[in-house]
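Input record, target 12 of the design panel.
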């Protein structure tokens, strides 16, 4: 064990020396001479979105970091304004139990509930358990509530602030902002600046990534009836990609529809009425099903129903969509990305700057909040150990834990997307039989329902 510890320390030392540079050597693009004004801070978080705001709040609310100076940089010029009476946003998150527990710990969950959240108790089919699988919350509501909590710690994001370049000094990182009016000297730089992270590019951290040649089409849907119990999240796998309808209230749901590049332009050009017709057909039409495979599936189901206990199922129709909220229809390209390193000396990647996943399982932002939880736990332990929380020893622990979990999740969702993107008949038949078995076999159904709500 002692030899293993010595080997680990030597590897970390080698890794640190590989990326250490002299105080004069920049790690990014050459720029003008730095300004004379320099502000010393302990922790700088670049990116004031969902994950960056949660990271700042995790530090601010930790008793072990209450004496540390924290700076949150946000490139946007304004912050979201939310209220109960505003129209629903077209960008939402399906928060799992781990993310909700994090927000409760940070004191932000009650703020979110006071505005609006919607529980998901079932996925398409009737579930025997009454526990919520997730909560659907608008991105703007999450960000606004996190920032409101930050104000209680006298921390507000610095708007119009983006990292232009940074360079290593002896015991810190010097950051030059785009406005060139000030330098920051920070002990730790946390990149939460999205999947096109400029900080990751400046640090020359390579990535594994590919383009799915798909788009995610989103919109806020108006439902036909005032549904008193709109707590079902609907997802259907089509040959063109999955379509999901996530509950927002008794009158509204949120659409996330994965389509090929060639199809997304057509959908975006349709009138609202035509677009609504396409949504309803996508949820109800059986035109894409293969009769031979349906027959095989039904025959196999009749055999196993004689051998195993089956779960009682209640057939439900998806909600009927009557309209979409004005200007809520949008589309964004879908890609997979994973940084080959999440940590460098005094530098950490979190959220989409570290990894980006297909939206079909709704795990992307939950993985980002998992980064926040993992990093704050590790750095708090460093403080308890009396160590420098910027030490690469602890940052590598964060990387090891998150790479293991995130890469497994990325590849599993990627495989699932590929499985449902094929029209190869034998694969489609096996897929249909497998899903039918899970739906009928109560223990397996409970297991997968719990996995859907589990930690990322």
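The sequence produced for target 12 reads:
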């Amino acid at each position: 064990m002692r030899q293993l510890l010595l080997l680990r320390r030597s590897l970390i030392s080698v890794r640190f020396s590989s990326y250490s540079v002299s105080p004069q050597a920049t790690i990014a693009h050459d720029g003008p001479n730095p300004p004379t004004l320099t502000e010393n801070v302990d922790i700088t978080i670049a990116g004031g979105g969902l994950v960056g705001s949660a990271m700042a709040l995790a530090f601010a609310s930790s008793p072990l970091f209450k004496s540390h100076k924290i700076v949150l940089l946000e490139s946007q010029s304004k912050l979201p304004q939310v209220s109960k009476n505003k129209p629903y946003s077209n960008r939402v998150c399906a928060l799992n139990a781990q993310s909700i527990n994090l927000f409760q710990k940070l004191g932000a969950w009650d703020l979110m509930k006071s505005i609006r959240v919607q529980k998901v108790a079932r996925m398409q089919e009737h579930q025997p358990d009454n526990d919520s699988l997730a909560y659907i919350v608008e991105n703007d509501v999450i960000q606004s509530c996190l920032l409101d909590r930050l104000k209680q710690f006298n921390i507000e994001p610095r708007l119009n602030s983006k990292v232009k370049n940074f360079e290593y000094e002896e015991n810190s990182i010097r950051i030059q902002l785009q406005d060139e009016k000030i330098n920051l000297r920070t002990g730790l730089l946390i990149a939460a600046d999205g999947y096109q992270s400029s900080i990751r590019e400046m640090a020359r951290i390579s990535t594994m990534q590919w383009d799915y040649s798909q788009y995610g089409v989103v919109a806020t849907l108006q439902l036909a009836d005032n549904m008193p119990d709109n707590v079902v999240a609907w997802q259907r796998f089509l040959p063109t990609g999955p379509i999901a309808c996530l509950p927002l209230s008794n009158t509204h749901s949120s659409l996330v529809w994965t389509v090929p590049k060639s199809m997304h332009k057509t959908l975006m050009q349709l009138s609202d009425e035509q677009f609504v017709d396409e949504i309803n057909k996508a949820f109800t039409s059986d035109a894409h099903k293969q009769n031979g495979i349906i027959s095989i599936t039904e025959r196999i189901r009749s055999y196993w129903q004689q051998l195993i206990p089956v779960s009682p199922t209640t057939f439900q129709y998806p909600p009927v969509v009557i309209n979409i909220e004005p200007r809520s229809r949008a589309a964004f390209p879908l890609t997979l990305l994973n940084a080959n390193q999440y940590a460098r000396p005094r530098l950490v990647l979190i959220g989409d700057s570290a990894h980006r996943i297909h939206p079909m399982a709704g795990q992307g932002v939950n993985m980002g909040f998992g980064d926040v939880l993992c990093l704050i736990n590790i750095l708090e332990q460093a403080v308890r150990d009396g160590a420098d929380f910027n030490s690469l020893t602890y940052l590598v622990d964060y990387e090891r834990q998150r790479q293991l979990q995130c890469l497994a999740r990325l590849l599993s969702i990627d495989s699932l997307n590929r499985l449902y993107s094929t029209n190869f008949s034998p694969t489609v038949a096996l897929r249909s039989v497998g899903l039918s078995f899970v739906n009928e076999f109560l223990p397996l159904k409970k297991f997968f329902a719990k996995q859907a709500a589990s930690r990322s």
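The radius of gyration is 24 Å.
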